[in-house]
Amino acid sequence: MTSSTAQTDWWRSAVIYQVYPRSFADSNGDGLGDLPGITSRLPRLAELGIDAVWLSPFYTSPQKDAGYDVADYCDVDPIFGTLDDFDHLRAESAKLGLRLIVDLVPNHTSSAHPWFEAAVAAGPGSDERARYLFRDGKGANGELPPNNWQSNFGGPAWTRLTGTDGTPEQWYLHLFDTSQPDLDWTNPWVHEQFREILRFWLRRGVDGFRVDVAHGLVKKVGLPDYFPPPPSPDPHANDLARVDIPFWAQPGVHDIYRDWHRVLQEFGTDRILCAEAWVEPLTRLAEWVRPDEMEQTFNFTFLEAGWSAPSIRSSIVDSLAAFGAVGAPSTWVLSNHDVIRHASRFGLENPRAHRTGIGPRTEPRPDAALGLRRARAATLLMLALPGSAYLYQGEELGLPEVIDLPDGARQDPTFFRTNGANYGRDGCRVPIPWEAAAPAFGFSPSGKSWLPQPTEWAEFARDREERTEGSTLKLYRLALSTRARHDLGNGDLEWLDGYGDGVLAFRNGEVIVVANVGQAIAELPHGELVATSEPIIGSALPPDTTAWLVARD
Ligand code: GLC
Ligand code: CA
User: Fold this and answer.
1) 494 is a catalytic site residue
2) Residue 400 pLDDT more than 60?
3) Which of 185, 376, 392, 415 registers the highest number of CB atoms within 10 A of its CB?
């Protein structure tokens, strides 16, 4: 492939919109979003100006982790619809010119997957058990877990089985919930199953896969204990470059992605893999997107840069350098279904704190107005960057995190596994508002909603924002159309200096971008203002505001 054709690959510059199926649109009134609901709203996404949709899991699942616990990788859970509904969704999205990416969850299955049920039934030493990470316990009677690893959702990462006669049995590994047993990726059988799962969806016409926990599939040989380094003021103290974590970023994962790369190539050259890999530093993360592996990886360094000009700038500089060095585009993302919505995150005293969620007892609460203002400025900055950008449903409405969910409504396993100490992620998963005056704000015809929507969400409803000058929806539309017109996603970034500390300024093609992350007013250069995150008078750019200008010369 020549470099000029490489530059036109759709995914190098695509804006990809994440749909979280259970919270997007409910067609049948049961209070849970579904595939026909998504299909009915696709025209709204097309007119927003995105290029592709990523669907979080809609597969057969007991929904212990909102579908990231898969019991059948090749079917649709009845709560979301049928395979025919999927085919219809995919056909309609293609008609609208939207690509479609689905989620792949290869690190673990559901404990209700027939593979795991067979493994439990077959007993120690069987082929079925060898598909997962079963081990005997330590201690005189195997009463201690095989190692000291902790689950990401809190508590031990091992659970002991009990035999049918009531006697304690082997332990199995689950880096997440007990209902999510980890597969053993040293087993060729597992590889073969996933090649076929990829082909199943590729044949159904998907344009790619977002790969869940793409840094976790391979564990260090012998499953050694892990002793994290002591807490350090250095935010990068846990960089995988310095610490060998036996369950993350083990070198063997790359063989899997090279293999999948070849599977995708059986279907042409424009299907993609995007890694969800929480790996630092960026130079290490870039290993996921070497030319014979994946096409994209989420760039969480940018998401976690906080509201500070030097750290945002260095995350951009380091990203472009690290991904550029392997010939990959950078991705950019500010929100998803696992993090505090950025309209609230940027209103926290420290946007980098509270990684485990916020709720009624969180003090101080985010400053909602400041958070939204900074979120709009951050998005306008993000959408001017070369590379591919990911949006999370509802951010185009400026939706905040829902803080006041009652304990009884919460569903995230994080909340239960920490006895409520960590609120978890339900606050960013509340069903989104479409019409201010409709039941459940248009989410569901019956007015039901699997998580309660705040009454104030009428003001964020899409129909209301359609009619409101200066709404966040209008800002997103303007930014996306201007980004497309100037082809910013395929552009090059040239930093401009002299705007003062606290200001990020750069040029991407004809567009000059000035983001005021500091506290003083900044002076805009000459040029035609084409987008601003807040109304601007004259050439004064207030704090927490981003502007795009087209140079007149
Ligand atoms: C990823 C998903 C998250 C899920 C976890 C386990 O981080 O984004 O939602 O809980 O993997 O599958
Ligand atoms: Ca439904």
Assistant:
1) no
2) yes
3) 376
Tell me the per-residue pLDDT of 471-488, one tens digit each, with 9 for 90 and over: 999 999 999 999 999 999
**Tokens describing residue 289:** 């997107």
Would you state the pLDDT for residue 235?
63
How far does the centroid of ligand 1 lie from the alpha carbon of residue 183, in Å? 15
DSSP string, 294-336: -SEE--HHHHTS-S-HHHHHHHHHHHHHHHHTTT---EEES--
Beta bridge partner(s), residue 273? 209
Please state the domain extents for the chain: 11-107+188-472, 114-173, 493-550
Give the CATH number of domain 493-550.
2.60.40
- Residue 284 CA to ligand 1 center (angstroms) comes to 21
Which of 61, 177, 209, 212 gets mutated to test ligand 1 (max ligand atoms within 8 A of its CB)?
A: 212
Topology of the domain comprising 11-107+188-472: TIM Barrel (3.20.20)
DSSP helix/strand/coil, 97: coil
Taking only the tens place, the pLDDT of each residue in 220-269 is 999 999 998 877 777 666 666 668 999 999 999 999 999 999 999 999 99
Q: Does domain 114-173 have CATH number 3.90.400.10?
A: yes
pTM of the model: 0.97
* Interatomic CA distance for residues 295 and 387, integer angstroms: 12
Task: List, chain by chain if needed, residues with CB within 6 Å of any ligand 1 atom.
Answer: 65, 68, 105, 176, 212-213, 276, 337-338
- Sheet holding 208-211: strands in order across? 296-297, 272-275, 208-211, 99-104, 52-55, 15-19, 388-392, 331-333
